Amino acid sequence: MDLATLWFFIVAFLFVGYFVLDGFDFGVGMSLPFLGRNDVSRRQVINTIGPIWDLNETWVIVAGACLFASFPEWYATLFSGFYLPLLLILLALILRGVSFEYRHQRESAAWKRGFDRMIVIGSAVPAFLWGVAFGNIVQGVAIDADHIYVGGFFALLNPYSLLVGLTTLLVFFLHGVLFVALKTDGQVHEDARRLAKIAAVPTILVAAGTVLWTIGIAAGREAPLLWLVVAAGVLAAVSLIAAVLFSLRGRDGRAFTAGAATVLFAVVMLFFALFPFVMPSTIDPAYSLTIANASSTPYTLQIMSWTALIALPLVIAYQTWTYWIFRKRVTRSSIEAAPAHA
């Protein structure tokens, strides 16, 4: 395996980490209207991700930086062509982060409701648009001979990408609800379990459609890793069903783990379907961006490889330690005993 191919899979690994971790953050935010019956319940839901949401978001920063350094052509075409949806994602993430920090600054119920709405919007928009973006990357977009995206914004809103966007929205929602069930007690805990049952059927149906369509795209392109696309899709489906079954049996830890595996295998499936391209062209296959023609020089990739060898284990170790420190449930009694601004 050459360095360019290695870095394709490193970028895939970073996006897998981001979607697994920030995915349940999005789900927790989207679940707020359904699980937050009162301010105490809403604080309990928000506090499940309070110490970790910003740490989870660092994965997308690292992924973007590695994409820029290892595949500058891919980065340039992606960020110029997908400028508006990526800008909307960025604004939504800013909106959500500000809401977490400012919600408790006043006792006004109207003030808190306003920021609660922004948490929901700031979670739902990225959850949907990330799926739309990756759906277009896998399916291919209108790239000309100069590797410039020449389609408009509405061209990105095609049936396949919208289906992938709806899938990420629903899967992240279920992933977040399972996390709330794992991390809370009392009424919120019971409500989260019930909500997981309600969300299960539409999530499974929509996700199944995405898996089958993705396999069809990979088969039509004669993807060299087609068998891995199929395997990852099957594993994603099995993990999703397992997450629902574990939740029904009250095995919250296993349900959340299976939900995380669902996201992992789903993202892996998309990258396997994309390989060896990084952005296929729908105008002419010769105009497509591939791992070979979009990567940096071997010397740059070599330096990055040594850097990643040192930095990535440290990042993973620190994140693991953080999750261990904040592993306990957020109990209703602890919320009630804490000041209202906590």
Automatic annotation (TrEMBL):
It comes from the Bacteria. InterPro entries: Cyt-d_oxidase_su2 (IPR003317). It is found in: Cell membrane. The chain crosses the membrane at residues 6-32, 77-98, 119-142, 162-182, 194-219, 225-248, 255-279, 299-326. Pfam families: Cyt_bd_oxida_II. Belongs to the cytochrome ubiquinol oxidase subunit 2 family. This is Cytochrome d ubiquinol oxidase subunit II. Its main location: membrane. It is a multi-pass membrane protein. It comes from Microbacterium luteolum. Keywords: Cell membrane, Electron transport, Heme, Iron, Membrane, Metal-binding, Transmembrane, Transmembrane helix, Transport.
